[in-house]
Amino acid sequence: MSSVRSVFSLLLTTAFLLTGHGIHMTFLPLMASDIGLSQTVIGISGSAYFAGFISGAMVTPHIIAKVGHIRSFTTLMAVFLCCFQILPMTDSSVMWILVRFLLGAVMCGAYTVVESWLSDQADASTHGRVLGIYTVVVLGAMALGQGLLSRTYGEAAQVFALISILISCAIIPVSLTSSLAPEPVLATRINFMKLYHRSHTAFAGALGSGLIIGTFWTLGAIHVVSVTGNADFAPAFVAVSILGGALVQYPIGIASDHRIDRRHVLAFLCVMSGITAFYLSSATDTTSLLIGAAAFGAASNSLYAISLAKAADNSPREEFVMLGSSVLLLNAVGAAIGSFVFGWAMRAFEGDILFTLIGATSLVFAFFISSQPKGATAVPTEEQSTFVAATSATAPASLQQDPRAGDIAEEDQLTPADTVPTTDELGSEIEYSTAA
């Protein structure tokens, strides 16, 4: 409880920030469709958001190093509000793409400030607990945002005002906190090739998660409106998918700790994502869509967390921050690719094929993951690291500490991940097809 009290202001900021963020992620694609932008442009604007997210992860640490956490956060939120207010003034596709890129960059920057502060406030023994609470706040706030959107949708001015109020409120707790700001954030380091060498499974899970969930966030609401003709239903559809993922993440994660090989867990989740996506592709009534959304969210929203846990299994301690950051940003790369390609496909084929494409993609990743043999870097099931709840709606700063840090034995025994040989040590003994 004391660990929660010490970071209460940061969690309150997170609640306001993610409630507004949840609303704007669903509302902007719907608004873009209402003003006549094509599905291709909506997809590209979604890709721009995730590309901006990646850029924000690279740039924000340098901003924090120059002006500190509080000034960085207030500046980023000011930029968000300025950019956001441009959108109701224009129907230019170029302007929408540019603004969404900037929104992605500053939102990642805001995550970086809050999460680096949270990591600094939590020591090794409480980091996993604080991150778990943070994840619950993130998912709960995003779901709450959908409920607020359902009450205001139809009045664009009200929605823009609501989002602006929530983002503005997020500035207050951080600005008034009595907690000392932490040291500057380390620059984000990523290495996709090393992640692939360490674990093909974690690499595929991160990329597949981005393709599936990122595309859902960009185009899922558009699909529902196209099928039902009811834009007011879209927020409920998105909210149910978030809640479905939130409810099952811990049970799935705990089951994977010491009972089931995470390779099999990821393959199963991809299969279930595919099956539920195909179900959604044929669902037309609201009840069926809600049932499908809950099942799809339960399967797909856990892909990122299990991929991150798999990367932790295969990471030496000194590499976890880099490999964890690589998992997160590879997820964003997948989201950028998926939003563009699937948005183009929806326009080109002139049909409601979004979930058919997501289903096919999910099964491709399921086949790839399940076909990976156990290699030299495989970790025995009983020695897998402890699962920590996580969401891709974060920045690399949330990974500043290895979640296994609190599990070090008193005798300073190494965990299995510490004994994983480095890429150089393995040399030619590891073929690209054998790193599970």
Tell me what the structure shows:
- This protein starts with a helix and ends in a 10-residue tail after the last helix.
- The protein has one domain: Growth Hormone, Chain: A (Up-down Bundle), CATH 1.20.1250.20.
- It has helices spanning 2-6, 8-34, 39-67, 69-84, 93-121, 127-152, 156-176, 192-198, 200-228, 234-258, 262-282, 286-300, 303-313, 320-349, 354-370, 423-426.
- The protein is globular, with a radius of gyration of 21 Å.
- With 436 residues, the chain is an all-alpha fold.
Give a brief outline of the structure.
The chain has 436 residues and is mostly helical. It has helices spanning 2-6, 8-34, 39-67, 69-84, 93-121, 127-152, 156-176, 192-198, 200-228, 234-258, 262-282, 286-300, 303-313, 320-349, 354-370, 423-426.
